């Protein structure tokens, strides 16, 4: 793969990571502050009603630390690509899990879970595939963020496979020979 293409893909991957982190910080940080003010460090009930704000902030910090650590040469490109892929896939999987389990109904007791269902956003017995497709169709912001995350995964995997900075010399030469024979 040409170095110019690799630089462009790295820049696009960084932009996608920053966009994902910005969304998660914008959504999670204000809610985390409110929860912290209401519950303190140790909630009396054991767990806050919705742990996502704290998880969103941690996720955003992890995402933002990747490019920083790469530019400081603390983390190798290969490890950054793998870490970025795993974090973005983990976000997608957590999003599916959250919706497939009734928006965290497994965290609440029966009364709280029933009040959540009565609030108007219940999925009933819809299959997980249709549930996710429904959210993709009806929630434009979620659609945008998950699309950004999917694109980030695709770019990270492509870079893992084709970036000459991390591909062993023999494999890089073979890849260049293959691309030259295709031309």
Task: Describe the secondary structure blueprint for this structure.
Layout: H1 3-39, H2 52-71, H3 77-100, H4 110-118, H5 128-138, H6 140-162, H7 169-182
Features:
single chain, 183 residues, mainly alpha, globular
Q: Count structural domains.
A: 1
| Shape annotation | globular
Q: Low-confidence stretches at least 5 residues in length (pLDDT < 50)?
A: 110-120
Number of DSSP E strands? 0
Largest sheet: none
Residues in helix, %: over 70%
Number of helices: 7
- The secondary-structure element order is HHHHHHH
Distance from first to last alpha carbon:
13 Å
Class from helix and strand fractions: mainly alpha
Give an overview in words:
The structure is a single chain. The protein contains seven helices and no strands. The chain is mostly helical and 183 residues long. It has one domain. The longest helix is centred in the first third of the chain and has 37 residues, at 3-39. Residues 110-120 have low confidence and may be disordered. The chain crosses the membrane at residues 52-71, 80-98. Keywords: Membrane, Transmembrane, Transmembrane helix.
């Amino acid at each position: 793969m040409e170095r110019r293409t690799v630089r462009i893909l790295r820049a696009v991957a960084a932009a996608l990571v920053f966009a994902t982190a910005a969304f998660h910080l914008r959504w999670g940080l204000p809610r985390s502050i409110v929860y912290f003010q209401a519950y303190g460090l140790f909630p009396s009930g054991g767990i806050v009603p919705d742990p996502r704000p704290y998880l969103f902030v941690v996720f955003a910090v992890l995402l933002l630390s990747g490019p920083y650590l790469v530019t400081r040469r603390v983390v190798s490109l290969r490890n950054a690509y793998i870490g970025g892929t795993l974090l973005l896939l983990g976000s997608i999987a957590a999003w599916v899990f959250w919706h497939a389990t009734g928006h965290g109904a497994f965290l609440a007791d029966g009364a709280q879970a029933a009040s959540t269902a009565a609030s108007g956003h219940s999925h009933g017995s819809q299959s997980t595939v249709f549930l996710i497709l429904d959210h993709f169709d009806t929630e434009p912001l979620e659609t945008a963020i998950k699309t950004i995350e999917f694109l980030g995964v695709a770019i990270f995997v492509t870079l893992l496979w084709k970036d000459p900075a991390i591909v062993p010399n023999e494999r890089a030469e073979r890849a260049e020979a293959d691309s030259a024979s295709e031309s």
